[in-house]
Amino acid sequence: MRAAKTHIMSTSDRVGSDPSLPVHKLPAALQELLDTPRSAAQQEFIDTLPIAIALVCLVDRKPAILARNRAFLQLADRHSSRREIDPGRDLCVGIALPLLPEIEDFLNGDESDRSFDMQEGDGISGRHFAVRLSRLSGGESPVPRCILSLIDRTQQVEGERSLRTQMLRDSLTGLPNRAAFAEQAEHAMLNYAAEGRQFAVLLIDLTRFSRVNEGVGSLAGDELIITVARRLVSALRAGDVLARLAGDEFAVLLGVADDPSEAIAAARRMQACLATPIRLGDLEIKIDCAVGVAMMAPAIDDAEDLIRNAQIAMKRAKQSGHAELYQAGDSVTARQRFSLETELRRAIERDQLHLAFQPLIELSTGRVIGFEALARWDHPEKGAISPVDFIPVAEESGLIVALGRWALRAATRTLAEWDRRAGAPLPVHMAVNVSAVQFQRDDVVSAIKAALTESGIAGSRLKIELTESCIVTDPDGIARVLRAIHGLDVTIAMDDFGTGYSSLTYLQRLPIDVLKIDRSFVAPMLHDRDSVAIVRAILGLASALGMATTAEGVESEALIETLIGLGCDIAQGYYFARPLPSDEAFAYLRSRPA
């Protein structure tokens, strides 16, 4: 479609009706055509047509209007400037110069019709038309003729432009949205390819925003987003582009040098501008953010790929606590994680996982008082896949809910099976880990009830282990859940104690029965006095709060003697046994002193 800018000029109804025109110079056949009378009915008929039309022919190889309807005249009067017609040489009345080549080319060709768009004027005040040329064939006329029709599309074009503007803007902040940001990135990629102008994409994700929404409501959450947007704008340089991609996710497009240090510095600037708490009514809310940075590279040919690279870096930033730069191997790792997620989902659906059981030993008597159930995955092609690899994938994808419910059912069923094999309930309990993500996304209380009911195991023989991160995310909500679990007579243990960020106030408020001392403190005790001091402090705290203690990672007899001397209650580790399959764990239990 070709576009032309034009001014349409009104003329008399017929070229031949103006006595000032030198009609004696026209070819005889054309003169005869002009002299042919046109009835009032014919003119009235074409005047009733809703679109502007005109009959155009070639005169001395130049387009000239023979006739046009009232709509054509009204269109000319509304949207055009007038000029004086030189009757001595201008027979192209009604057609502006930019449109002439198009019509002349059409009349000199052999097309039956041609359509294109035309703009009259520039900028916001310009008018837009759909132009159509339709050839007239047959008859006695020796000159090419066509019908010119003009449809005013100005309102439609302006409506589309307004709609597009709305579609490319975030309604809350007025910032460009994801689609607009992708367009900006595509434009920057063209400049990079043509001129080598380097740029980077920063992805900014607000932490704890969902909790703010839950705590103060969506209206206050909107106000928070607007405030964050303003602060981020204040941290931009001239030429930088800020967009809101999703609820609490922003992106920045900025031109940089080839050295990524400039992009990292910009990321830190974004974090710094959010460091001051934001006031919402009577509340002051501290909002941190994770920032991922992706530099443009020759191998990237799509804006979404660049944004995805920044997302991968941003996920690492959430774990590290500082801005992260995308590295070339990150996408490979991400694809592997997605592949692992697909395979894990199938493994859960097909019941291809199993549990291993590590004994819990009472240090004062040496007897087995329980087992910790640990998920294991033997891949049919890849072999054993470590929980260190598949548990984070399960948490990130949400599969941890299905995996956690399966572990609860499998652990309690195993304990019930051991009871049947022994002929009576065994004096042992089963410990099952519950992820912080499962506490957030699942009804853990109902899952525990279902597992106990299905297996027939008493609640007192089940221990739920959770990490400190469970408590930090939502202390009040987790407290309610833990009290409900405790109401089922289920024991609650805090796993990996000392490695997280929980307040001692939580220990006082929450119904926690056991503190498990992380192996990172236990293992170096024999040669690290600081580790001994930390373990002694944890044991003293547990004793003061009436809690039992379990030491993880015990691998020598000397460690056992040290832990007994410090007053530790329970231990587990390779010194006693590695995690065992169900049959071997049962045999181990039967071989130990009762």
TrEMBL record:
Gene3D superfamilies xrefs: 3.30.70.270, EAL domain
Give the source's domain of life in one word.
Bacteria
Q: Which residues form a coiled coil?
A: none
The cross-references to Pfam families, in alphabetical order and at most eight, read:
EAL, GGDEF
Cross-referenced SMART domains: EAL, GGDEF
| UniProt domain EAL: residue ranges | 337-593
- GGDEF domain location: 197-330
> Know the name of this protein?
Diguanylate cyclase/phosphodiesterase
> Residue ranges of region Disordered?
1-20
NCBIfam families found in the cross-reference section: GGDEF
